[in-house]
Write a structure and sequence with these properties.
Elements (H helix, E strand, L loop, with lengths): L3 H18 L3 H15 L6 H8 L5 H12 L1
């Protein structure tokens, strides 16, 4: 079983790998939403997304989150 600290470390690692694949801010936020929700079972929030990605304005994760839930 992964500990909460282990989960956070793995999540940060996954986000770094996604940064290499997605240069567009909205694409990166969308992919991080998917990883949080489908791989880790964590409901993505605007604050959590921004803490992990730290790219763009605060409206960027908010827009990506809305689009994620619509899909």
């Amino acid at each position: 079983m992964i500990t909460p600290i282990g989960t956070e470390t793995a999540l940060v690692h996954d986000v770094e790998r996604l940064r290499e694949r997605f240069s567009q801010t909205q694409d990166l936020y969308r992919e991080v939403c998917a990883v949080l929700f489908f791989r880790y079972g964590i409901t993505p929030t605007t604050n959590k997304l921004y803490q992990l990605v730290r790219k763009g304005s605060m409206s960027a994760p908010s827009q990506a989150l809305a689009a994620f839930w619509q899909e």
